[in-house]
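Pasting as-is:
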Amino acid sequence: MLMDEVNEQGGQEQTEKSEDAIINIGYDPVMQTAIDVLSVLGAKNKVILRARGNSIPNAVAVANIITEKMLIGNSKIGKITLDTVAGIGDMTSTVEIILNKI
């Protein structure tokens, strides 16, 4: 585990568009994060989940819980973007999952 991943903060960041919200997925419990995302998705039309490194499975799990368990038929995954950030001597994968409210 990388040191900067241990200090990664989960939370919510507002974007310029009023219908979007960015949520950085960390190491918080998946169900707690899904409930937080659900409350944000109730107020916004689009939520962007971002994760990096070992937090990527948590982001995928949150997206699946929202679309397949909580908001069945009322939400969908819009786009998934995968990337790799290269540093000095290491590479860290990142993911961005866009959830849309129908």
